[in-house]
Amino acid sequence: MKRLVKVLGVFAATLFILLITGAGSAISDKLLFYVRVAKLYSQTPESRIAMPLADVSKKQIADTWQAPRGVGRRHEGQDIFAPRGTPVLSATNGYVLRVGVNSLGGQTVSVVGSGGRVYYYAHLDAYAPGLEVGDWVSTRTVLGYVGTTGNAQGTPPHLHFGVYTLNGAINPLPLLTDRTAPAMTRNKPRETRTRSRLINRRA
Ligand SMILES: [Zn+2]
Known about the structure:
The chain has 203 residues and is of the alpha+beta class. Helix content is 24%, strand content 26%. It folds into two domains: 2-41; 49-177, Distorted Sandwich (Glucose Permease (Domain IIA)), CATH 2.70.70.10.
């Protein structure tokens, strides 16, 4: 018992020194991050999430969930087409889990939200400046910009959007809800809106 008290005392003193010297701020931030992520995991996942591209409506998305993609691979998400450089907004609140490159996705951002669900944004032309792992994001946060990185090279620019539960990928389409269009967009002539409807089944 005495020994345990001593160990705890040393631990508390070390933590105190780390905190007052500032060396611990990184450690305490990290601890706080894990506590917050753990809290997110315990919450019920959203049944409705926001469209990552503000001016795209749900009915413009051609459902390609589970569409064959070469030998032995199926499409684990939805492709949302928009001009290169269109801001990609977070579909949910959550924490940035990963910012990085992989061969299929190119430049990607992953956000962990309620229920430990991971929202995956791929083929980004660029990341939002200053975006870092551990950042808290809301549905108003720009994560990056639409592009053609990864295996989307040579295809029309689009966002590949994936949703991963602890049991694997699920179709994002039923979850997506349109963002309220700003008055200017709503009043655009019909032709303009129809022209921006880009559907491509390749990528
Ligand atoms: Zn895709």
